[in-house]
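hey can u run this one w/ xanthosine-5'-monophosphate bound, need the structure tokens asap thx
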Amino acid sequence: MSFRLKMNRSAKKTDSNIVLALDLPSDQPQSLLSRSIRILEEAHSYVCGVKINRQLVLPLGLFNGVQKILSIAQDLELPTIMDCKINDVGHTNRTIAEYYYKAGFDAVTANPFVGWEQGLQPVFEVAKQMRRGVILLVYMSHKAAEEGYGQTIQNPKTEQLSPQYLTFAEKALSWNADGAVVGATYPEKIKEVYRILGENVPIYSPGVGVQGGGVEAPIKAGARYLIVGRTITLSENPAETVKRVRDAAKRCLK
Ligand code: XMP
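ok here u go:
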């Protein structure tokens, strides 16, 4: 089953479009694994997927701690995303993707800035061979995103000027990416990207809550999945918090 379909099915089954970002801050490294597992077990009924970043891979190790979390997510039938933002030359990118897929991740994130040939092509190839997903960054959620993703560029083929992120949205479509990331903090950009992608490539939107993004605006603009981290992971009651976010998202999806 493709990653896209896996996410779709999971969202239907869990009645949720929330992806839990298990990106815990580094203040208590000794209890990182047990805390991550506890949050996942408490929140799992209200999320359709789990995203992990280097906050866990670096201290816990990919084939030790992180694999334990992946196997719990698999038991719960939740698809997993490694938010590694692959951004190197092709053969290195391929190796990075292979390790994450072999560890059990269903998808990786990648940065279209490096281009196709000798860039992300090998990542898409290995994803196809292993039947996993690639999600492309299109416009990030942080304040300085405009400095890179928002630059005006001249399309080398058509010579027309366009914002960088719209060319990335077009690449997400033509490369047949499994998802496109656009920050929840920029709903107007989500709308523009959605006009290009439609229902062909689902939009994943991080930046909800702590980074200032809302729930309603990104969904109304076209985001399919909301990626939520600290609002859930740092809350006193992760299950209650994630249920509240999930219910708010559900109301907007109707
Ligand atoms: P918070 O705690 O802000 O966490 O809800 C969100 C997590 O998602 C990651 N993040 C991004 N990943 N593109 C991405 O691929 C983005 O624009 C982006 N913004 C945030 C980030 O690692 C954070 O931990």
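Strands lie at 18-21, 49-52, 80-86, 107-110, 133-139, 152-154, 161-163, 179-182, 203-206, 225-228. anyway lmk if its weird
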